[in-house]
User: Fold this.
Amino acid sequence: MPTFHSIVRRWTTKPAPGLAIDVEIVAATALLGAALGIGLATAADYGLTVDEFNTDDYGPKALAWYTSGFKDRSHFETVEFSLWYYGPWFHMLTAYLQSFDFADRITVRHAMTFLAGFGGIAALLPIGRLAAGRWAGLAAIVLCLTTGYLYGSLFFTPIDVPFLAAMTWATLAIIVMTSKVLPSWRATVATGLLTGLAIATRTGGIITHAYLLGALILCAAEFFAERGRLTLQYLLQLAVRYGVVVAIAWVAAIALWQPICAIQDCAPAFRDHPDVVRVLALGRADKDRCAPAHVHSGPTAGAAA
Assistant:
């Protein structure tokens, strides 16, 4: 039965003589190229969403926090508090590009959000090939691009799309890092930076630490299968690499997510998250921590607002 690392090595396996051109790579490149061109050409055709309205205020003020030497505190005083639950790096980058005024602000935002999501979807090609073999990555890309709900969201969901991208890149980094029984230091550092980016995008990125731990356990299992024993030296080497990834990740996350740096300002918002559910059912609106009883007992289902 093929091992995890024998599957990973498929990515670097050279095509057989006479098949010097990898058809999957050519097809994926053509598909992604077409999607990129269409996406950028139509970025101005999408409307403005509530999240875009809020993050368009969040980005410039978060950027000002850094460029003012941490003196401009408008980010902590005049933006919607719930935005503190999400890292600002993507919104700062968007605000910086908007400052050049080479296109309408919302068009620039749509294009930037699309490019972030496009980068995440493109990463499915190596992920698919490394994890499952040829054609899996292309199949995943096709499914994503032909799912209207996902494709459309690539333009106007500035909170979710950067997280999609960061988590996909972090997952790819973990797969590459653990493609060897003993991960290289270069891959270890890259994984630390990309998992840190995921954490700096949304707190859910912390789960990448669990992904990495699981992958390292598989590395140890393969080491045991090949040698019939686990050595203390090897386990320590794995532990050190895991610790380095975690350390780099949190340094990157803290550097990119300023509410962590100013926890005294944002801790109450995290602590007192209301978790409010607002529903419209049977002709009346309710706002509570859980859906009201009549939503479950009434003849029609409530729609979350």
User: Anything to note?
Assistant: The first helix runs from residue 4 to 8.
